[in-house]
Write a structure and sequence with these properties.
Order of helices and strands: HHH
Strand content: under 5%
Largest sheet: none
Distance between the termini: 26 Å
Radius of gyration: 19 Å
Number of helices: 3
Helix content: over 70%
Length: 103
């Protein structure tokens, strides 16, 4: 089996290469990935908590929907874009370092 994960990251760099050629970039992208996961979980938990009041009734939890959509659009999406930019920059640094003599 190959060393690639199935999480959407389609880069060919191994973890060892990333740590060797750009350790700071690796730490930044890892931290951002964990922060993004935590933010998405908090948004989902907030939306679920807002819907608790509607569980025993027939009404639709509009507040929960608004919290979820607004959180995903205005908080999680910019973080996703930042993560993608960090990831591309990190892999560009690793690829450039591999091409350098002695790398």
């Amino acid at each position: 089996m190959d060393d690639k994960s199935d999480d959407g990251d389609k880069f060919e760099d191994s973890r060892q290469d990333c740590l060797r050629y750009d350790p700071r970039g690796y730490q930044q992208t890892t931290w951002m990935r964990h922060a993004l996961t935590a933010v998405i979980a908090l948004i989902a938990l907030g939306a679920a908590a807002a819907s608790v009041a509607h569980w025993d009734g027939a009404g639709f939890p509009v507040t929960s929907l608004v919290i979820y959509v607004a959180g995903m659009v205005f908080v999680a999406m910019p973080l996703c874009l930042l993560y993608e930019a960090l990831l591309k920059s990190h892999h560009a640094h690793v690829a450039h370092a591999k091409l350098q003599p002695g790398g």
